[in-house]
Amino acid sequence: MLEKEPKRIGDMLNQFYNLELRINDLITIFFKPEKKKEFFNIMLNTAVTSYGAKVKILPNLLEIDKRIISDLHELGRIRNGVAHVAPHLVLILKEGKGKMNSLTTKLEIMQSNGKIVKKDFWELSDRFNELLDIVVPVISGHTKALE
Description:
Order of helices and strands: HHHHEEEH
Number of strands: 3
Largest sheet: 3 strands, antiparallel
Strand order of the largest sheet: 1-2-3
Radius of gyration: 19 Å
Helix content: 55-70%
Distance between the termini: 48 Å
Number of helices: 5
Number of domains: 1
Strand content: 5-15%
Shape: elongated
Structural class: alpha+beta
């Protein structure tokens, strides 16, 4: 029975939403639109400009290390994986005397090449946190520099 995973998924989606808001702020501050609220709520609405498109915009506006852009894309892939694929328990059978079988939580995620791979949910969660710890200070720093 999955118990902790649904809460963690909710936390991850909330953290990603807050990251995207930070990116929206950065883009809005850069462009200094006359109608700031409309620009933010219409032009940067995800139905109009996807997260991936916003990430592609950033290096055209500011000097941002390619690694940060790559990390932002990876965060988007992890977010999509946890938002659109339900985690499930997988029994890991260990062969040999004295070996203990174990349960782990996996996600089946389609890679950019179309291949579906199983990923450990908690490893993805840890990677998500690592990436946030890297990119959020960079986005915040650029935002403060433009204000």
